[in-house]
Amino acid sequence: MTLRITTLAERPDLADTLWDMPNSWPEFMLNDPIAGLYYGHATSDFADYVLVAVDDEAPGTLVARACTVPFARPGGDLPDDGWDAVVRWGGATRRRGGVPDAISALEITIREDLQGGGLSSLMLAAMRDNAAKLGFTELLAPVRPNQKHLEPRTPMAEYAFRTREDGLPYDAWLRVHVRAGGKIVKVAPRSMVVPGTLAEWRAWTGLPFDRSGPVEVPKALAPVHVDLDQDHAVYVEPNVWISHPL
User: Fold this and answer.
1) DSSP 3-state assignment of 209?
2) Would you state the pLDDT for residue 60?
3) pLDDT reported for residue 57
4) What is the dihedral of CA 193, 198, 204, 209, to 10 degrees?
5) Cα angle at 77 between 42 and 160, to 5 degrees?
6) Helix (H) or strand (E) holding 85
7) 14 CB burial (10 A radius; 0-12, 13-18, 19+)
């Protein structure tokens, strides 16, 4: 494979198929109600902040994408509602015509059949380079550790700072960020919140959702909170804030 990574602004022909690439995101992750503030405008207003990777040996074949969002950052510490916060801030900055002074990663998605081949590291490097090219001095990232779903009941505050003997993070995706120059800052305990009726959650997961209390869902980083009497379930995903100085 000969990989070429550009911004979507440089490859507008890929806009119509940007979301069609086969991927491994679980269905419930696609139902965060905040997400539309960004993804509804990604191919138009944020095209300079979306990276696309194509295989030059198969022209026009998308193999990976990476999304970032620029925003005017309020003062204070990085927010506990990490992913949702930067999407809201990005949407507000865009609507108000504000001048962004910060940028955050939102996702890196690799075509499902190519996962595990090192493309994520290449996309992260390209994301850092693009942020620097756009004039930012730091890339923020509310990171979703990719092995945390194997331990949904382990507190993220414990998991995020677990290290190996060499001092690098225990989690493979956190290691990629640290090796690229990122620094773990803190946990975002409610980075993404996905509410739904029990019927919606059954459709998203294929699980019965027939009892109240915490329910472990495949690929979720923490249990889903279920209330049969109120006919709803809520997933609160913790992430890990990482800062990449550029």
Assistant:
1) coil
2) 72
3) 77
4) 110
5) 80
6) helix 82-96
7) buried
Q: Which residues pair with 65 in a beta bridge?
A: 52, 109
Residue 79 DSSP code: P
Q: Which residues pair with 197 in a beta bridge?
A: 232
In three state form, how does the secondary structure of 133-198 look? Answer: HCCCCEEEEEECCCCHHHCCCCCHHHHCCCECCCCCECCHHHHHHHHCCCEEEEEEEEEEEEEEEH
Cα distances from 39 to residues 8, 43, 91, 117, in angstroms, run 13, 8, 10, 27
Helix, strand, coil percentages in the chain from 3-state DSSP, rounded to 5:
30, 30, 40
pLDDT in tens, 50-103: 999 999 877 678 999 999 999 999 989 999 999 999 999 999 999 999 999 999
Tell me the mean pLDDT in the region 182-203.
98
Question: DSSP letter at 1?
Answer: -
Reported residue count of the chain is 246
Mean of pLDDT values over 117-123: 96
| Residue 216: other Cβ atoms inside 10 A | 12
- Percent of the chain predicted with pLDDT > 70: 100
Residue 127: CB partners within 8 Å, gap ≥ 6? 51, 66, 68, 105, 108, 139
Domains of the chain: 3-193+238-245 (3.40.630.30)
Dump pLDDT digits (tens) for 207-231: 999 999 999 999 999 999 999 999 9
Measured CA distances, 189 to 11, 138, 235 (Å): 36, 22, 12
Q: What is the mean pLDDT of the chain?
A: 96
Please state, as a whole number, how many other Cβ atoms lie within 10 Å of the Cβ of residue 71: 22
